[in-house]
Structure formats: structure tokens, C-alpha cells
Amino acid sequence: MQRIVLIGCGFMGATHGSVYRLLPNAMVGAVVDSRGEAVRASLRSCGLEEVPVFTDFATAAAQGDFSVADICLPTDLHRSTALQAFESGMHVFCEKPIALTMEDARAMTAGAREAGRQLMVGHCIRFWPEYVELKRIIDSGEQGRLLSLSMGRHAGRPGYSIGDWVNQPERCLGAALDLHIHDTDFLVHLLGLPHSVTSRGIRDKTGWSSITTQYGYGETVVTAEGAWNYPERWGFQMRFSALFEHAALDFDSRAQPSLTLTIGSMPPVPVDLPQIECLSVETGGNITLLGGYYQELAYFVDYLERGVPVAMSTGEHATESLRVVLAEIESAATGKLLNP
């Protein structure tokens, strides 16, 4: 049984708490949140209302034998909190992105190695059912070579973060890092590191609120766009369109069915996915599809239980993806083609 200190209980913290409540081999033993008892409403939404709350990590860590620190804090706090957890002998699950800078990311991966602990980063799209199916089709070669792939992630301007930290560029770097990195990370997982990136973007007082990138992957045409400068109540969409020699696979989170496969002259057909991966819970008044959140945390806890090093979404993987996104941001700022 993995005993978890959940650090930060905003939107993502409550989502993680909801997942842990469903896992038979994990339990949240303490919550750390600077708001103290004011976080109780959030805890009730994910069934953790009886869990003790602390305002600082050191005090929580001293109260019990915890094996995991789950960090759901603003990105600029990831490094210091992760290193503190490693020093306390805990494994770390850290929300994405791993950090704001390569220096911080490398310090975190080094801290895990030196402590002999595991570090996994919440790049949940590697576990999201529709994206898992895309990777399966590419790896199997059953529809021929991948000719082109476009990906997108769009949202209304975010207003959900505690203290509005996601709209503070020094803490977040905007949609280019906090939102778009999902697709960049999945591309690295899918196709490896690109040999080049060329980006254009929109920059405002909140940072890079929109970015569009063309990635160098040989003959395969690959693009991705991430933006959260849509009207506030526009909602959220994630999508991809993959064209193969013999078929097209299309995903749109706002469509029904969301995932379709078109082969030859046949009409598009829905792709069935396991229902267990479509669990939903209410977190602070919002219905959140657990999907990849459930799968990634179940994977992490299972590997810890078996004493096996995690092989997916590791600190090293997250550092590679951060390096590519930082190159994209530099390309958008300079207009240059860059090699990550």
C-alpha cells in the first residue's frame, strides 16, 4: 500500500485525489495546501474530507510513514518541493511540466537518482485512450506509413488556478509550456526527438498564449498548435488528425463519436475504447474525465508496488520534452529554425 502526501489541492490536486480513492493499493494520508482548512470544500469533492490538512510539507512528512509525494503546485515550486520530498525518502509524482528551466529539471532528475527514488511526471496524454490507440496503429504499421499528423489543444483563457498563477508568465510561461507541452511530449513519445522546430506564436501579458509549431520528422509532416487565448467561456478541445497510406484516424474531444477511423472508400467508423478508461468524477463543481489521469497514477502506483522502475513519463522523458518546448518558444521569439 502506497501512502501519499498530496501537495496542492486545486483543480489537479482534487483530480489526483479522486483517482487515488479508486485505487486499491494507494491512500492519501495527508494533504498539504497553503490555504489550510479552507481547502476542505475541495477535499469533499473528491471524497477526502477526513484526511488531515497541513500548511507545510515538512510538518506533514513528520506525521507519518509516507512513500509518495504527489506535487500539484505551480510550476515554479516543483523543483524545491521535489528535492524536499526526495530528502524525506519519498518517491515523487509531479504534475507537468516538470519545471520552467532545464536547470531545474536536471536538478530534479539528479535528486531522484541520488536519493534512489522514482520520479514520474504527469504527461497524461501518453496514457489517454485515444492517443494510446494512435500510437498502437503507428507502431503496428497496419494502415501503412504515417504521412502527416496535426495536433491541437485549445481553451478559453484560464481562470481556474489558485492565485491566478497560470496567467503570470514568470510562473508559467503561458499556454506554450503549460498546455501545448502535452502534444509536444506525446510527439516525442511517438516519434522521438524532432531534428528541428519552427514556431510562430502570440504573446500577451500572460506569456505565450498561443503557439504553432512545425516539427522536423523527415518525410512525415507534423504540426501542433496550443492556445488558451480563446474567449473565456469557449471551453476546451483536444484533437488530432493522422493520415496514413491506407486510412485516416481523427480525434476531437468535442465530437461524438470522438475517435473515428476512415479506411479507403468506406465511411468513417467509431473506434471503441475500453469503458473503464472513461470514469468521471465531480471536482469542485466540474465533471472531470479521469481517462489518462487514472491510467497514469494506476501505472505509477503499480510499478512502486512491484518495486520496478517506471518506464514511461519519467523525469528524463519530461526533461526532453521541456527542452523541445523551450526551443519552440525561442523559435517563436526569434523567427529562427532551431534544433532542440
Structural account:
This protein is an alpha/beta fold and 340 residues long. It folds into 2 domains: 2-123, NAD(P)-binding Rossmann-like Domain (Rossmann fold); 125-274 and 312-334, Dihydrodipicolinate Reductase, domain 2, CATH 3.30.360.10. It contains 11 helices and 16 strands. Strands 8-9-10-7-11-12-13-14 form an 8-stranded mixed beta sheet. The chain is globular, with a radius of gyration of 20 Å. The N and C termini lie far apart (40 Å). The model is unreliable at 276-288 (pLDDT under 50).
Strand percentage lies at 25-35%
Q: Say which CATH homologous superfamily of the largest domain is assigned.
A: Dihydrodipicolinate Reductase, domain 2
Strand order of the largest sheet: 8-9-10-7-11-12-13-14
Compute the CA-based radius of gyration.
20 Å
The CATH architecture designation of the largest domain is 2-Layer Sandwich
Counting structural domains, the number is 2
Report the average pLDDT across residues. 92
CATH topology category name of the largest domain = Dihydrodipicolinate Reductase, domain 2
What is the string of helix and strand elements?
EHEHEHEHEHEHEHHHEEEEEEEEEHH
Helical proportion?
25-40%
User: Sheet with the most strands?
Assistant: 8 strands, mixed
Q: Kindly report how far apart the N and C termini lie.
A: 40 Å
Q: What is the approximate shape?
A: globular
Regions with pLDDT < 50 over 5+ consecutive residues? Answer: 276-288
Name of the level-1 CATH class of the largest domain: Alpha Beta
Number of helices: 11
Structural class: alpha/beta
